[in-house]
Amino acid sequence: MIITAPALLILLGTSVVLQADLRPDEKFLLLPPVNFTIKVTGLAQVLLHWEPNPDREQRNVNLEYQVKINAPQEDDYETRNTESKCVTILHKGFSASVRTILWNDHSLLASNWVFAELQVPQGSPGTSIVNLTCTTNTVADNGMHLRPYQVSLHCTWLVGKDAPEDTQYFLYYRYGSCTEECQDYNKDSLERNVACWFPRTFIHSKGRDWLAVYVNGSSKHATIKPFDQLFALHAIDQVNPPLNVTAEIEGTRLSIQWEKPVSAFPIHCFDYEVKIYNTRNGYFQTEKMTTNAFISIIDDLSKYCIQVRAAVSSVCRETGLWSEWSQPIYVGNDEQKPLAEWFLIVLTATVCFVLLIFSLICRMCHLWAKLCPPVPAPKSSINDLFVTIHYEKAGSGETEIEVVSYVEDPGFETLEDSVF
Ligand SMILES: *[C@@H]1O[C@H](CO)[C@@H](O)[C@H](O)[C@H]1NC(C)=O
Ligand SMILES: *[C@@H]1O[C@H](CO)[C@@H](O)[C@H](O)[C@H]1NC(C)=O
Ligand SMILES: *[C@@H]1O[C@H](CO)[C@@H](O)[C@H](O)[C@H]1NC(C)=O
Ligand SMILES: *[C@@H]1O[C@H](CO)[C@@H](O)[C@H](O)[C@H]1NC(C)=O
Questions:
Q1: Out of 3.40.50.460, 3.40.50.2300, 3.40.50.10260, 2.60.40.10, which CATH number does the structure's domain 27-55+62-118 have?
Q2: What is the pLDDT of residues 162-188, one digit of tens each?
Q3: Going by CA atoms, what residue is nearest to atom 2 of ligand 2?
Q4: For burial by CB atoms within 10 Å, which of 78, 176, 307, 338 has the most?
């Protein structure tokens, strides 16, 4: 018979009386639970189950159970239930013990232990994968699915040092009750899978469950030892960098703004770090912020390089990784001041010089105008030109062509020219 929680609660009220009824020799006759089993219920997940000792059952005593996990990692807890779920790696085997206990006037009465175990999975040594690392990343879902955000998963590993060349590995992950096999592998030079990419998963980015990853394999020459590992989401989540970082300088105020990263976490869940790099003197300033804006007073006219990164703050979950820095943005200008000054100086000097030359020319023109007669009329000018050309013609045959191109109104003059 399974003692259910409500039944136990009813029993609680009567337990004091019943315990008082126990004779001293009975204290040492607590009987251990029976039919203790360990069942694998999922990747890196087992269910421990036992039954109350049938001989003990009719005593109606307020019994509890103490569970001790021996491997792979020691743990010890008490429960009134007759089953218990454990999330743990299984590639090193699993073993646990359970016993019946009874607290009586702050002294513990306990039965013998019953023991159960799962064997270490079969496989040749050195064939399982090593150095498994996984990261998750949140991407905005473009309306194709119900959830506004999707979590992608990327895992990489190294081939076991003694794995045969024909080894092939297969990766599975479990989150909550969902298990999926990888469909998109990267391979090494021997075509063995060494990385896996899930563009979307059942992982909840704000969830607190463990992520279980399991990698088994096959080969014609050896049994490949499977490997599993548990990951805490906060420790492997690669946060996106802040969005739309902008900066502007007004006088001596450098103001920087940004938006929260693509993430299922709301706006108040982020810590930021702002990095301001003065490109002129190489000085770095980093500031930790919890708001989406930062104002700095600058006394140095320079070009600044600004980057911001984000992390989910401890307000919303356990401290994890910083995002990458946002793309650098530049504000202000290093060269502007000296360049502008030089430009002004050169411009002023040039203008002064040109004015000086001009005035000199004007004066000379003035003198010239006084000394020389007025400019001749256009018609006579053309005639003059022809006079000159005719004069030159005497010396060279080539000039003939030039003449044609120079004269705007050919007419008899050209004819006259060619005849010449
Ligand atoms: C324990 O298991 C055996 C065999 O499976 C079964 O006959 C027996 O009824 C079980 N005992 C209890 C208390 O469930
Ligand atoms: C793999 O992990 C081991 C320790 O677990 C470490 O010593 C080794 O350097 C790692 N190898 C690589 C290539 O990262
Ligand atoms: C690997 O594990 C999965 C899930 O447990 C199983 O379905 C598959 O048959 C295993 N493959 C090999 C080669 O052992
Ligand atoms: C970032 O800016 C772009 C355009 O400047 C805008 O379309 C987008 O909505 C902004 N992102 C957020 C998260 O507001």
A1: 2.60.40.10
A2: 999 999 999 999 999 999 999 999 999
A3: 131
A4: 307
